[in-house]
Amino acid sequence: MSAVIVSLRVKATPQEAFDVFTQEIAAWWKPNGLFQITPRGDGVLRFEPGEDGKLLTDLPSGKSFEIGRITAWAPGERLAFTWRQGTFATDQTTYVEVRFEALGDETRVTVEHRGWDRIPQEHLARHGFPLGVFQIRQAEHWRALLGALGAQIDERRI
User: Fold this and answer.
1) pLDDT score for 109
2) What's the predicted TM-score (pTM) here?
3) Choosing a second label site near 29 at 20 to 30 A (CA), which of 65, 79, 105, 156?
4) Residue 71, Cβ neighbours under 10 Å: how many?
5) Which domains does the chain carry?
């Protein structure tokens, strides 16, 4: 199974980085028109914490869309969840794993998003991109998101 893997160091402990990632996702998640979660946009993301919790987006219409289910919840260490976009068929799912690794006074946050090879190239979510091109674009998106996470962490320290 192919994967997109992106890492970024942030000035925080692993626990702080985990908390901002999960509790403040609505503040740092930046929508990208190429990778919209639903045809109506991304909405406001939030986690229902804990194993078997959910990642949801609340849409302006008042409806919520379940993006995925949490499969691993280890605060300060690891977070994993399934990922579905609104246009996915019921049997189409990708997987996200986020690891938090202490490196001195910083934390390396690593996102691994895998399973895109199971989503057909002609699917709306892939925009007709061959897998390699799509994964480059997906990595750019996650890199921007982790940059926004780092900025959110920095803002909390001011």
Assistant:
1) 98
2) 0.94
3) 105
4) 15
5) 3-156 (3.30.530.20)
